[in-house]
Amino acid sequence: MALSCLAPLLTTACGTEPVDWGDVSYRGSQLGDPDARSAVLRANLPSVNGAVAPCLRSIRTGGASSDLFRAWWAARSDSSVALAMQHSSDRGTNWELPVVVEGRDRGRRGCDRPAPGIFYDGTRGYLHLVYFIEANDGAGVFFAHSMDKGGMFHSPVPVVYGNAPVAASVAANGDSVVVVFEDPNAMAPRIGIVLSHSTGHIFEARSDATPDDVPAVGPWVTLDHRNVTVWWKPGENVAGKTGDRIGYRVGVWR
Asked: Which three-class secondary structure state does DSSP give residue 57?
């Protein structure tokens, strides 16, 4: 059953699919896919108040023109984490002081958790982040955004609740925002999607980005006007192996 008929945050009518999806396709893994990151981004990583060590494998980056952003998990002594972010206006030569975007995590996983997703809209100066935490009011994926290049972040918005730690990705075009995530409540590996025309203040629609018969993990997404493209890694039960294949699907946001 589609997420659109189950999710309590839905504001569109049940049964109305927000994206007109094309067929599922596959390609080989390529340089530039999310797992390919430069080690230089780990250089001079600052300390974060209240944290004892950065989770180096969690570093993710976004940028446009001369602006570069990096976000990472910083582990505390009790094995909870804070989500930290830094901005550079000269493509990483110099970095501003770090900002703690999210400090509500009360989990005990330390660095053993999915990395955050990050996207920067250079035209508007908007920075978007998605991430999984275990907060006092419930575990799940949350979305946070800044409209001034990371100077100040709006209060986080829940994307989906669920106890399983899951990966998520975000993309935007002006006030339109899409988030994809591993569905923490699905019986089989599946990718969910939520969409907003209000800069993520409210997600007006949600659905599944992958069919029920296509196991999928590790998603990432792009948004080009109304065209949504979702990529993922095939789930482990695809013919017993995944190799280097990447699944993807293109749709039009209605």
From this structure: helix
